[in-house]
Design a protein that fits this description.
Blueprint (H helix, E strand, L loop, with lengths): L10 H7 L23 H7 L3 H4 L1 E13 L4 E12 L3 E7 L5 E7 L2 E2 L1 E5 L2 E10 L4 E10 L12 E6 L5 E6 L23 E8 L3 E3 L3 E8 L4 E8 L11 E3 L2 E9 L2 E9 L4 H7 L2 H13 L9 E5 L4 E2 L5 E3 L23 H8 L7 E3 L6 H19 L1 H10 L26 H14 L2 H14 L3 E3 L1 H12 L4 H9 L5 E7 L2 E7 L9 E5 L2 E5 L6 E4 L7 E3 L6 E4 L3
Parallel strand pairs: 1-11, 17-18, 18-20, 21-22, 23-29
Antiparallel strand pairs: 1-2, 2-8, 3-7, 4-5, 4-8, 6-7, 9-10, 10-15, 11-14, 12-15, 13-14, 16-17, 19-20, 23-24, 24-27, 25-26, 25-28
Helix pairs in contact: 5-6, 5-7, 6-7, 7-8, 7-9, 9-12, 10-11
The structure holds zinc ion.
The site of zinc ion (ZN) has 8 residues, from α7.
C-alpha cells in the first residue's frame, strides 16, 4: 500500500486512531500484543481460498458504479467473467456492510444468495461444468464505510479539496476492495484480462480511475457524466481506485524500455504549476527503475499520477499522490541522514510498487514484505542510480532506525493478516544485506530484473521469491530469510581479539544460520563466515581495529569468548 512505514510523520494521529487490526504496519507504533488473536471465521473467509472460491478463476471485472455525493451512497454493479477450474454451483462473493447486494443475474435468470457477514453465498441453478467460461452481474448499493484515515484505514472519503470543491476518493488496502465493490477479494486471483471501471458522477466533476479513459458519456437530463476507464492487464483488487474531483489533465511521454509510455497527471487546477515542477521526478523514477527492474510493467495502461488529499498509494497505473509537491515524505527524511530530502518519497516509493506489488503481487497478505520490503529497498536503488552508492547506503542503513523487531515480518496465512511494519525498513535492509553477501552487482541486477521478467504479471508466495533469489545467486539464503522474515532477532556477532587472532560466533540466530559477512581488520576487508560455533581467524599482523562492514544488517559485540 502506501508507505505505511513513513507514517512515522503522523504517528501520533495513527496511534490515536488505533489503526485497525491486521494493519500492524506502523513504523514506530506502540507495542502490540505478541499473542495473536485466534483467527475468526470471517478472517478465514476473507483470507483463504475457500471451496467456494477455488473452483472459478476471474477473467474480467466490469465495475459500473455511481457515486452520489448528496446522499453519500454508491449504486452499481459488477459483471464478473470467470472460467471454471472444476465443477461448482456455490460461489463466494465478498461485499462488506453496510453495502448490500440487491440482485445477481446469470444469463436470463436471477440467482439466489444469502449473506454471512462480509460474504455472500451465491447459488447457481445447476452445477457449472469444469472448463466453462461464464459470467454473472452483481447489483449492489448502499452507504459505504467512510475512511477514518486514508489510505491506512479503508473506505470512501467524501472530502473537499483546498478550495472547498468535492474530492471523493477510495482507499482499501488491507481491509479489501470489497469495502466498496463486490468481488472475489483475495490476492491470489486477479482478472487475467483486466477490468473496466465505469464511474458515474455529477456532471461538474471528473472521475479518474485506473488504466486509460476510453470515453465519457454525458447524461444531460440526469446532469451526470460517466467516465469509462479500461485496464488491459491483471490488477490486484486493492489497486483499483476511483478519485472524483475538479481534475484537469496534464500529459507527457516517456521514451523507455517498452517504447513510448503515455503519462498523465490528473491534478486540481491550482496545482498545475507545482505539479509540472515536482513531477519532473517521474521520468527520473522511470529511468532508475527500468534500469534496476526492467521495463515498466503496464505500458498499454499508461502511467498516471493523480493528486489526492492523503499522502499516496500504489494504485496500479494510477498512483495517487498527496505529498505536497515537495521532497521527502511530507517534508520529512525517512533516513534522518539528509538523503531522503533529495527526492519525492511518494513518487519513488509508490511507483516502485508498479514492479513489486502490481507486477509481482502477493497471493496472501502475510507475504506483504514482497511489496513493502522491495519498495523500501527500491528507494535506495533510486538513490544509488541518481546520487551514487554512498548516499544509497546512508539511506537504506538510515532507515534501520525504524526497525522495532516487535513481531515477525511474515504475517498469518489464510487470515488476511499482515506481519510487522518492519517489512519496510527491515525488509529493505535484508535485501541490502543479501546483495552484499552475493557481492556481485551484475548478478544482483540480473536477479532484480529476472524477478520482474519471470514473475511478470503474476501473483506469488514468499517461497517463490526466496527460492528464486537463492537459485539465481547460487547461494542458499533459506536461513537468512528465516532469520529476518520469520524471527524478531537480529544476528549478534560475538568476537574477541587477541594479538593476530580474532575469535567469533553468531548468537540469536536460527539453527544453521551461517551468513558470510565482510569485516574490516586494520583497514583491510576480509570475508568471514561465522556460525553458532566459535571460529578463530589469524590475521597477518596484530589486530588493532575490527569492525563489521556496515552494509550487513547484524549487530556486533566484543566480549570474552
Ligand atoms: Zn508501499
Amino acid at each position: 500500500m502506501t508507505m505505511r512505514k513513513c507514517k512515522l510523520a503522523i504517528l501520533v494521529i495513527a496511534v490515536l486512531l488505533q489503526v485497525h487490526a491486521g494493519a500492524g504496519y506502523l513504523f514506530g507504533q506502540n507495542a502490540q500484543n505478541p499473542q495473536p488473536e485466534p483467527i475468526t471465521r470471517q478472517e478465514t473467509l476473507r483470507g483463504s481460498i475457500t471451496p467456494e472460491r477455488e473452483w472459478w478463476d476471474v477473467l474480467h471485472y466490469h465495475l459500473q458504479v455511481e457515486f452520489l455525493p448528496e446522499t453519500r451512497r454508491l449504486k452499481g454493479s459488477n459483471t464478473i467473467t470467470f472460467k471454471t477450474l472444476k465443477p461448482g454451483n456455490k460461489m463466494q462473493i465478498d461485499l462488506q456492510p453496510p453495502l448490500a447486494i440487491t440482485k445477481i443475474t446469470h444469463s436470463d435468470s436471477q440467482l439466489k444468495f444469502e449473506r454471512e457477514g462480509n460474504v455472500y453465498w451465491v447459488m447457481f441453478e445447476k452445477e457449472i461444468p469444469k472448463g466453462t467460461e461464464d459470467k454473472i452481474e452483481i447489483f449492489y448499493e448502499g452507504v459505504p464505510v467512510v475512511s477514518k484515515n486514508p489510505p491506512w484505514v479503508g473506505g470512501i472519503t467524501w472530502g473537499r479539496d483546498d478550495l472547498g470543491e468535492p474530492l471523493i476518493v477510495t482507499t482499501c488496502e488491507g481491509i479489501g476492495a470489497s469495502i466498496w465493490w463486490p468481488n472475489k477479494d483475495h490476492g491470489a486471483d486477479e482478472p487475467d484480462r483486466g477490468m473496466q471501471i465505469s464511474v458515474t458522477v455529477p456532471e461538474n466533476l471528473v472521475a479518474v480511475s485506473n488504466g486509460r479513459l476510453k470515453k465519457t458519456d454525458h447524461d444531460v437530463a440526469g446532469k451526470k457524466k460517466t467516465f469509462h476507464w479500461e485496464v488491459l492487464n491483471p490488477i490486484n483488487n486493492y489497486g483499483v481506485n476511483v478519485n472524483i474531483g475538479n481534475y484537469v489533465k496534464l500529459t507527457d511521454k516517456y521514451q523507455g524500455k517498452g517504447g513510448v509510455l503515455d503519462i498523465e497527471y490528473w491534478v486540481l487546477p491550482h496545482q498545475k504549476e507545482a505539479a509540472l515542477r515536482q513531477f519532473k521526478e517521474v521520468p527520473r523514477m522511470l529511468e532508475a527503475f527500468e534500469h534496476w527492474f526492467g521495463k515498466y510493467p503496464f505500458y498499454d495502461d499508461g502511467y498516471k499520477l493523480v493528486t489526492v488529499q492523503y499522502p499516496g498509494m500504489e494504485h496500479q497505473s494510477s498512483v495517487t499522490y498527496g505529498n505536497w509537491f515537495r521532497n521527502g515524505y511530507l517534508q520529512r527524511d525517512p533516513c534522518a541522514c539528509g538523503v531522503g530530502l533529495k527526492f519525492d518519497f511518494i513518487i519513488v516509493h509508490e511507483s516502485a510498487h508498479e514492479w513489486f506489488g502490481n507486477n509481482i503481487s502477493m497471493k496472501d497478505a502475510a507475504d506483504m514484505w514482497i511489496h513493502e520490503g522491495f519498495a523500501n529497498y527500491a528507494e535506495n536503488l533510486f538513490v544509488e542510480y541518481h546520487f551514487g552508492k554512498k548516499d544509497a547506503e546512508d539511506y537504506v542503513i538510515g532507515t534501520r532506525r525504524g526497525i522495532r523487531n516487535d513481531r515477525p515480518i511474515i504475517g498469518t496465512y489464510g487470515a488476511n493478516r499482515e506481519g510487522s511494519g518492519d517489512m519496510y525498513p527491515k525488509g529493505g535492509n535484508m535485501l541490502h544485506t543479501i546483495r552484499h553477501v552475493i557481492n556481485d552487482d551484475a548478478k544482483w541486477l540480473s536477479i532484480l530484473r529476472g524477478l520482474n521478467a519471470d514473475f511478470w504479471h503474476q501473483t506469488v508466495t514468499t517461497e517463490q521469491i526466496e527460492s528464486y533469489i537463492s537459485t539465481r545467486a547460487g547461494i542458499d539464503f533459506s536461513k537468512v530469510f528465516d532469520q529476518y522474515l520469520r524471527t524478531t532477532k537480529i544476528p549478534l556477532l560475538k568476537y574477541n581479539v587477541k594479538g593476530k587472532n580474532v575469535s567469533f560466533y553468531y548468537e540469536r540466530v536460527v539453527k544453521g544460520f551461517a551468513m558470510p559477512i565482510r569485516v574490516i581488520i586494520n583497514g583491510k576487508e576480509i570475508q568471514i563466515t561465522p556460525s553458532e560455533v566459535k571460529q578463530t581467524f589469524e590475521f597477518s599482523e596484530d589486530i588493532k581495529t575490527f569492525e563489521v562492514n556496515r552494509n550487513f544488517y547484524i549487530e556486533a559485540a566484543k566480549s570474552d569468548l
